[in-house]
């Protein structure tokens, strides 16, 4: 069977779309406005001097996500002053996970002394925009030409269970490279944790 140029073009477009669905590095993400645990709305445009952001999709209920708040506090402490703050987002379906309601997000942030915004994505629109899949799922985005471009997405590091045994600090390495205007050494890894169930 012979296939014409139109079929081949459509096949190539389909393959490109499939690749893009798995590869978010290099794509542009939209600004958003979400409610923080302090009751105020937060948008990327609230940080006019930001060079980039560390965006982490996380939640209250996931055992793996529970391992990372101290490390997220450290990342924010280190990089916020350099113009790359941490923003955490919960996009969990609260109908399935009562532990992730807004009130319990507020309590968790207070108990664990989050030094970064913890935003409620109740409509899951931001998770869809980023194609976030797990909790935690980290993104490093960088401002280029007025747009926010994904430079890294995946795991925060390679050892959730034991911070002392981490060999690859993926998020930190990406930020350090970008600050030095160097290529990001690892642009994508597999995020490990509980799946984000989109309604």
Structure description:
With 199 residues, the protein is α+β, with helices and mostly antiparallel strands. The protein has a single domain, classed as Glutaredoxin. Helices cover 28% and strands 22% of the residues. The protein has 5 helices and 10 strands, in the order αββββαβαβαβββαβ. The strands form 2 sheets. An 8-stranded mixed beta sheet has the order 1-9-8-4-5-6-2-3. Strands 7-10 form a two-stranded antiparallel ribbon. The longest helix is centred in the N-terminal third of the chain and has 18 residues. It is globular and about 45 Å long. The N and C termini lie far apart (41 Å). The N terminus is likely disordered.
Q: Under the CATH scheme, which class? A: Alpha Beta
And the CATH topology? Glutaredoxin
The total number of structural domains is 1
| Backbone structural class | alpha+beta
H/E element sequence: HEEEEHEHEHEEEHE
How many helical stretches? 5
How do the strands and helices of this protein lay out in sequence?
Elements: H1 5-22, E1 28-29, E2 33-36, E3 41-43, E4 52-58, H2 69-79, E5 86-90, H3 102-111, E6 118-120, H4 125-130, E7 134-135, E8 137-144, E9 147-154, H5 170-179, E10 194-195
Parallel strand pairs: 4-5, 5-6
Antiparallel strand pairs: 1-9, 2-3, 2-6, 4-8, 7-10, 8-9
